[in-house]
Amino acid sequence: MAGKADHRSFGHIRKLPSGRYQASYLGPDLTRHNAPTTFEDKDTAVIWLTRERAQIESEDWQPPAQRRAAVNRDSFAVYGKAWVENRRTRRGPIKPRTRAHYLDLLNNVLVPTFGTIAVRNLSPEAVDAWYATLPKSTPTKNAHAYALLRSICKTAVEKRILTLNPCNITGAGNTERARKIEPATLEELDAIVNAIPVRYRAMVLLASWCALRFGELTELRRRDLDLSKGIVHVHRAVVWVDGNAVVGQPKSDAGTRDVAIPPHVLPAIRDHLRQLPMAGKDALLFPSAKDPHGHMRPATLTKVYYRARTVAGRPDLAFHHLRHTGATYAAQTGATLAELMDRLGHSTPAAALRYQHAAKGRDQQIAAALSELAKGATS
Q: What's the pLDDT score for residue 84?
């Protein structure tokens, strides 16, 4: 009969109107403690009470609610979120966009599998099994998620929560380009500049010939240009987080730099300055179309840029590939690795090396030019 209690030597079991069973007991603190859930059958309720009695007899007893809270505190979901929120680099807290990216990976890729597991119980077998289930269609996201998990576990090892890092799949945290980026030719770049609306032409030129990022371009102000010396000062960048523009430093210390503007680009920059709606030194060079004080959104540029690249016959050329184009051109001039790193704002040689490798593709052209030079000397 529903509601009839089972009076036992330890604990109390009651059948509910739903047919399920509720278990409770009077603890050493003289407080009644209920099981965290009801049970499908009486035997399962008895097992819970038996385990609780063993806890009391071992003298390690804590109230069930207190134990559940401790488990939640130690869970990967809680630890991972605290790790992201408190993450710092030598430059200070991580950037808002990086934090948002980490939280997205944490909540949508890692927590569904590891969220309720205590960090100390993470194992290589569990990590390997999770990694095997990741969709093959998102290799970059998979790599970022694995790298984040590995970094969180590395901190747990340093804090002696874990003995060993369970993330040991070689190369799982590395990203590889799905396809090789083909830089724009001079003719294609010229076609894009001519096809895009006038107010965006200087932006395309600075993105390509000075290899600037979108976030760096859209935070440039009049005071960041020194046209007498032909230099653009890159000291800030803007990122979009949850629909809001957040201004901060460039991606790394090396990202804060002065970039020489090729002389053939300067006339277009001067024309652009004359057409700007705002005249003050803090006026944005590439503001929002609706608000001269507001930052341009990526989607605003995308609409006009996609049409221009199609006219140029390069529907595959993303806007950030213009930076790749400019970097490749710089490498083809014979710039050293250190010079490329300085111009591009790279803090490590790895990225800049890609452009030097791309420049090696001109070796046949260089050899042919050398032969022409030799012919001239002997004629």
A: 94
**pLDDT tens-place string over residues 289-348:** 889 999 999 999 999 999 999 999 999 999 999 999 988 888 888 777 888 888 888 767
27 with 61: CB under 8 angstroms? yes
**If we measure between CA atoms, which residue out of 332, 348, 126 comes closest to residue 251?**
348
Instruction: Label each residue of the chain as H, E or C.
Output: CCCCEEECCCCEEEECCCCCEEEEEECCCCCEEECCCCECCHHHHHHHHHHHHHHHHCCCCCCHHHHHHHHHHHEHHHHHHHHHHHCEECCEECCHHHHHHHHHHHHHHHHHHHCCCEHHHCCHHHHHHHHHCCCCCCHHHHHHHHHHHHHHHHHHHHCCCCCCCCCCCCCCCCCCCCCCCCCCCHHHHHHHHHHCCHHHHHHHHHHHHCCCCHHHHCCCEHHHEECCCCEEEECCEEEEECCEEEEECCCCHHHCEEEECCHHHHHHHHHHHHHCCCCCCCCECCECCCCCCCECCHHHHHHHHHHHHHHCCCCCCCCCHHHHHHHHHHHHCCCCHHHHHHHHCCCCHHHHHHHHHHHHHHHHHHHHHHHHHHHHHHC
- pLDDT band at residue 1, thresholds of 50, 70 and 90? very low
The CATH class given to the 186-363 domain equals: mainly alpha
Rounded Cα gap, residues 99 and 78, in angstroms: 15
21 token code pair: 């069973």
Residues identified as active-site: 213, 320, 323, 346, 355
Q: What are the sequence ranges of the domains in the chain?
A: 5-65, 75-158, 186-363
Report residue 187's pLDDT band, with 50, 70 and 90 as the boundaries: very high
CB 246 within 8 A of CB 100: no
pLDDT tens-place string over residues 123-169: 999 999 999 999 888 888 999 999 999 999 999 999 999 999 999 99
Count of Cβ atoms closer than 10 Å to residue 53 Cβ: 15
